[in-house]
Amino acid sequence: MPAQREEIRHFYDEVYYKNARDVVGVSRHLRRLALRFEPWKNLRILDVACGTGRWLMAVHALGAIPSGIDLSRVALDACQRTLPKVELHCGSAETLPFDNCQFDFISCLGALEHLIDPQAALREMVRCAKPDARFLLLVPNSGFLPRRLGL
Q1: What's the number of domains the chain is made of?
Q2: Cβ contact 49:114 at 8 Å
Q3: 79 lies in a domain?
Q4: Cis check: omega of the bond before 140, within 30 degrees of 0
Q5: Which strands form 44-48's sheet, in the order they lie side by side?
Q6: What's the rounded Cα separation, in Å, for the pair 64 and 59?
Q7: Could you tell me if residue 131 is inside a domain?
Q8: Is the pTM of this model over 0.85?
């Protein structure tokens, strides 16, 4: 699996996030989603596969204390420029570098289905979550409009 993970990391660094420089703004969708889970004030959140950090930006603006992890160093560098004080790690979702029972909220938005071992990643998320933590996991479905349109 390490070779496969390196191949995936290379794709995200060299293709998917190749032109990621600065993160400019948060989508209306993410802002609205963040408002649905208020209050955020002083909650420790972890976003798994955080990419360039748009979700981290949305919850940070509402008072959360965000952390993120992603395989792509390029994406994390863009995120760090926008959120310089946020704790970010470059690594695998299947082996999270966080202590047990640390987060109030854990998210993984549109990435779980791309992981090499989603079950291991879910176990790690649960391990890092406080007993009363909330989870937000978004995955595509067959009714998703872009999928129905063949995009």
Answers
A1: 1
A2: yes
A3: yes
A4: no
A5: 87-90, 65-70, 44-48, 103-109, 129-138
A6: 5
A7: yes
A8: yes
